[in-house]
Write a structure and sequence with these properties.
Layout: E1 2-7, E2 15-20, H1 23-26, H2 29-36, H3 48-61, E3 71-72, E4 75-77, E5 83-84, E6 92-93, H4 101-106, H5 113-120, H6 127-138, H7 142-145, E7 150-155, H8 162-170, E8 183-185, H9 190-198, E9 200-201, E10 205-208, H10 216-225, E11 248-253, H11 264-267, E12 270-273, H12 283-295, H13 300-312, H14 317-332, H15 337-359, H16 369-377, H17 385-399, E13 404-405, H18 407-412, E14 423-428, E15 431-436, H19 438-447, H20 452-461, E16 476-481, E17 484-491, H21 499-502, H22 527-530, H23 551-556, H24 567-573, H25 584-593, H26 606-611
Parallel strand pairs: 3-6, 4-9, 7-11, 7-12, 8-10, 10-11, 13-14
Antiparallel strand pairs: 1-2, 4-5, 14-15, 15-17, 16-17
Helix pairs in contact: 2-3, 5-12, 6-8, 6-15, 8-12, 14-15, 15-16, 17-20, 24-25
Length: 612
């Protein structure tokens, strides 16, 4: 219902004010005055009952004489099956939110369709801008095909034409200029994004510059919420509760949208490419395209939807469209689960470009299917989020090997690290196993933005973890270390493949694969002393033997001539010899002769000692 009144607040300049409200609001006086009070409705809350009664009597007395017209509350598909592309279509558009009025007005026409077509013809050699145009044309196909909304993300280095590619796509329906309200920015809030999406049902939406976002979790939430076709549920029946939409979201930025989330499911909800839209030398083409679409826009979308409506009106038109889409889906299915889930999204883009080229809207031949496969259905390592999470754990273990408990450390009497043991390093039948405490793994993944509960199932399926049916849960197997027993995540060689190479004995070594050069000591040990195994605690990694024979036993048997040397003694005899001039020589001799106990896990290799 549209209500109008005369505002006489300006002396000598009365003006007419009109506002559209729902019939529910018009029949509730208090709510009506609350809604229209800011617009200047000449009524106060005390008049609420009289206002609602007067409106009801006025409508009843003038039944049949009050004119009626179609009203759209959003752009795109309407409830009666019609499509409103723009407020210029002859149907009045009254959006429920004030923030939506600017973007709605930006969906307007300028220039000519031929001018726009001539501009787009320059994009024939640039696949990424053409994909963006196809996405803009594919948005109205979501409803007849029964597809959910999804995201197309274009990311690359700066000055490669990302914003221009989005402007070309937006020009299918609206004014793509940066000062117009049709193009939005990621520097906003979730509720504002929901309002912007709520404006359309079958028209593309554009958000530029992911790097402008103030909270990384915002993009993560949008990527998950978008395919649901409605916003968040808000308590108390608040206005703006579960706002509906139907769109293809175009996003751009120097940073891929998927980098803002570590969830596996997000990768299946987005099509992303990191190819520069206009390449390294496409600056002139990008500038020409931008100038062309600023002068000619808003024509291709309405023309395309008329073609779609005419096709749907034909006998079995909707079924034929769906069958065409199904054939494309089958063609773009790949060998992995992720490519299979993306196939319907890729297929609808291909279908839109094919139909538009056949209609003559796009002045070039459709992209080959191989190009589409290379862009979106080829294997991408970032699709496997569980493996990416496991890489985080592997890197942490490689850098914190000294936090792994082992029998050798127990024999050396090492104390637990300050943060506690990370897990257990054990060897059985020549195979090395790494078992980690689950809470430590949970913390490591959380710091990297991953969730252990979200990836552990995939680790089990990939046989990265050992399982025992007798345990609950099976993937937490008991391991004993440091006099205690705890359930751990025991990794298989496939799950922790570097364990057998980088941690055969212990991680804290000097002289392993790195060259350590020092100055010559004052006193060189005699050849007799070199045969005497030192007392105390031993640590030898370079000459570790895979048979498992104890290092201490081999030293006592004279098999090895390692002379263990603590790090503190090493520093006293080499780096700080001037400071300890009076005792560095004798101290080194006592270590070499075995009369001074060694209290460290560090060692020097024989070649290093011989050089001294």
């Amino acid at each position: 219902m549209e209500l109008s009144w005369i505002d006489r607040s300006l002396a000598g300049r009365p003006r007419r004010i009109s506002r559209i409200v729902s019939r529910e609001t018009a029949k509730r006086g208090r709510k009506l005055i609350e809604t229209l009070g800011s617009a200047g409705l000449p009524a106060v809350e005390g008049d609420a009952r009289a206002v609602e009664k007067w409106l009801a009597e006025f409508e009843a007395a003038n039944f049949g004489r009050i004119p009626s017209e179609q009203l759209a509350r959003w752009l795109g598909w309407q409830d009666d099956g019609t499509f409103v592309s723009s407020p210029e279509d002859g149907i009045k558009v009254d959006t429920p939110f004030e923030e939506q009025r600017g973007p709605a007005r930006a969906h307007a026409r300028k220039g000519t369709l031929d001018g726009w077509r001539d501009t787009v013809a320059q994009l024939e050699g640039f696949p990424v801008p053409r994909v963006a145009v196809a996405a803009a044309l594919a948005a109205p196909l979501l409803k007849p095909l029964g597809l959910n909304s999804f995201t197309l993300d274009i990311s690359s280095r700066s000055t490669k034409g990302k914003t221009t590619a989005l402007q070309v796509a937006l020009s299918v329906w609206a004014d793509p200029s940066e000062h117009a309200s049709a193009m939005s920015n990621w520097r906003t809030t979730l509720y504002a994004i929901e309002k912007r999406l709520n404006l359309v049902r079958g028209i593309v939406t554009v958000f530029d510059e992911t790097m402008a976002v103030t909270d990384d979790t915002l993009i993560d939430e949008v990527l998950y919420q978008l395919p649901m076709n409605h916003g968040k549920a808000r308590s108390g029946g608040a206005f703006g509760n579960m706002l509906p939409w139907e769109t293809i979201l175009l996003s751009s930025g120097e940073r891929p949208a998927l980098s803002f989330t570590t969830s596996q499911g997000a990768a299946a909800r987005i099509l992303g490419t990191t190819i520069a839209p206009f390449g390294d030398s496409g600056g002139p083409a990008a500038a020409a395209a931008r100038e062309g679409v600023l002068a000619n826009h808003g024509h291709a979308g309405p023309e395309f939807i008329q073609y779609i409506l005419s096709g749907l009106a034909q006998p079995n038109g909707r079924d034929k469209l769906a069958e065409h889409h199904r054939r494309l889906v089958d063609e773009f299915r790949g060998g992995g689960d992720m490519t299979n889930r993306r196939a319907p999204m890729v297929a609808v883009l291909v279908l839109a470009e094919t139909l538009a080229c056949g209609r003559g809207l796009l002045p070039y031949e459709p992209l080959s299917h191989d190009v589409w496969r290379g862009l979106f259905t080829a294997h991408n390592p970032t699709d496997n989020r569980p493996d990416m999470a496991l890489d985080v754990v592997r890197e942490y273990v490689a850098g914190h090997a000294h936090e792994l408990y082992s029998t050798t450390r127990a024999a050396m009497g090492e104390r637990p690290p300050f943060s506690g043991w990370l897990g257990v390093l054990s060897t059985k039948d020549g195979a090395t196993e790494v078992a980690l405490l689950p809470e430590r793994v949970r913390k490591i993944l959380a710091e990297a933005g991953y969730s252990l509960d979200a990836v552990v199932g995939s680790w089990i399926d990939a046989e990265y973890l050992k399982t025992l049916k007798s345990q609950r849960p099976p993937h937490l197997v008991p391991r004993r270390f440091d006099g205690a027993r705890a359930k751990c995540l025991a990794f298989t060689p496939e799950g922790m493949p570097t364990a057998t190479r980088t941690m055969p004995h212990e991680g804290r070594v000097l002289g392993g694969t790195h060259e350590v050069r020092t100055t010559r000591a004052r006193r060189k040990p005699s050849s007799e002393a070199s045969r005497v195994p030192p007392r105390g605690r031993y640590a030898v990694a370079r000459k570790w033997h895979p048979s498992g024979v104890g290092v201490r036993a081999r030293l006592r048997a004279g098999v090895h001539t390692h002379r263990a040397l603590s790090l503190s003694a090493y520093l006293r005899t080499t780096v700080s010899r001037e400071r300890h001039k009076s005792r560095s020589g004798p101290l080194f001799a006592r270590y070499a002769a075995g009369t001074q106990p060694v209290r460290s896990a560090y060692h020097l290799s024989p070649s290093l000692l011989e050089s001294r």
